[in-house]
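lol ok so funny story. i was supposed to be doing the assay writeup but got distracted and ended up predicting the structure for this chain instead. priorities right. anyway since i did it might as well share w the group, maybe its usefull for someone
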Amino acid sequence: MRAIRRAEVITRARTWSEAPRRYSQDDNDPESGYRLDCSGFVSMVWNLDVPGLTTVELPDLCVQITVDELETGDVMMIGGPGSEGGAGHVILFQSWVNREHTRFWAFEQVPAGTRHHVRELPPSPPYLFYRYEMIQE
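and the output, tada:
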């Protein structure tokens, strides 16, 4: 695990959102070496080892937080045991869009490819909120 600043997380996320990658649970990005699925994307933005972790493994590097504690670079995830294959998903949080904290800017690797978009807060559960243990201001 390596320390990473929140601003660097967003800079790294923009590399894929500005040159969107196709989605694949089987292939790796030829440029970065990371898997082309949602957890490979989050592994890339957190600068984890190539080819990245899965949604089963990512929670092991995190502390669980509340929705009110979300900050840039944190994630919303269906992860841990039972989230293999298409059963899990992870979304990178950038910032809130509204005061009610129901809409936010997200970076996400989905079947349509890399997206940077405003989306609705997903239901909790099944989504839980996490902070990478090595993230810094």
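The chain has one domain: 4-136. The two ends are 16 Å apart (CA to CA).
back to the writeup now i swear
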